[in-house]
Amino acid sequence: MSKKSVDPSKGIGVKSSKIVKQENLGKRIGTAVVHAGEEINPQTRGVVSPIDFSTTFAYKTAKEWAEVFYHGKDGFAYSRHGNPTRSIFEKKIAILENGEAGIGFSSGMAAISSAIFTYLETGDEIVITDRCYPGTRHLLNQYLKRWGFKVHFVNAANIDSVSEKINDRTKIVYMECPANPTLSLCDIEATVKLAKEVDAKYFFDNTFASPINQQPLDFGADVIIHSVTKYLGGHSDVLGGAIVSSAEDRAEIMNTTVYYGGVMAPFDAWLTIRGIKTLELRIQRHNLNSLALAEFLQDHPKVREVYHPGLKSHPQYALAKKQMKGFGGMVSFCVGKTDTDGGTFLNALKIVKRASSLGSVESLAQASGSMIYLEFSEEEKQAIGINPGFIRFSTGIEDKDDLIEDVDQALSRI
Ligand SMILES: *Cc1c(COP(=O)(O)O)cnc(C)c1O
Which residues line ligand 1 (CB under 6 A)? Predict the structure, then answer.
């Protein structure tokens, strides 16, 4: 635990959160996605969890209200601090990540900023993978540095480059994989060990894998971060974020969250609860589709490179097999010889949509040079492995043969 940890009792109206446990969930995650966090509504017997839009909750006496708001008694007082529908989502995601407790946020970035600012004071240092989500990189470069935190970006695929930057001032080690956009990995167990040696918190952004494919808490991670907007929501209709951690870390991060204010709205929580019920089914299909597409691309004469952790040609295939249960729905590749070829390919796709984001039921693709990395110099692009004609592809849950045929006809145009 961080030495400068906040006293959970100081956050007004923030309970030191209880540990989430639930009976009768079955042993397997495909069952837990349906039932975790949910109960039959005792008043109506409805099997679907209701949406509670209340921002404020009234009690018979002032004392009862104060017991909930100030003294951690079970219940709700004000929705920034806790809301019944958000609470169901929080229980669900905590169980799926094998954690004790969760928090729902209004976006992935709200989760990231609230969690980071919980543990840092001026002069502290953070060691973070240089393949992190671009929004995270921007937050650290623009704001953390401005406030006197030291940020070390490291190549997390190389364990020595991580250990070199870790010292007694390191308060957070922040990892993320498979990493955007070349799907490189970091060794979770080995990097957790480095963080523990200096008593730093280990953060892991598990958005790309989802808890179906990877559960970093099992390797000793402290704080799991999600952009709910991607696989957990799964339908491109919710912007949200989540963290999962121990109950103690949850209480500390909730203290920050209550005052930063970026909590998840009840309707977004409900859509996410609904989306998660099919998470395991969807991820199975994403895993199959992306591997089938990667294998097709690998043998195609107009494709130069294919990046997918489930291909034996991936330099970290052995590590992927060790820490992942499935390889995820993302595949990246380079087509033709130039970014112009990449653009031609992208514009020729018929089923696949040209759009940012990922992890949804519909397939989405982007090309470097025309949609992404426009602000990067050639050298910067090469440093993170973005070669000419680079395509980032999020496979949806469509029929894989239709996706392959669409990609094939678009490749024939270059
Ligand atoms: C999208 C994304 C985020 C940011 O999430 P928002 O919901 O857009 O705020 C963070 N990390 C990863 C890996 C992402 O893909």
Answer: 107-109, 133, 135, 176, 205, 207-208, 227, 229-230, 239, 241
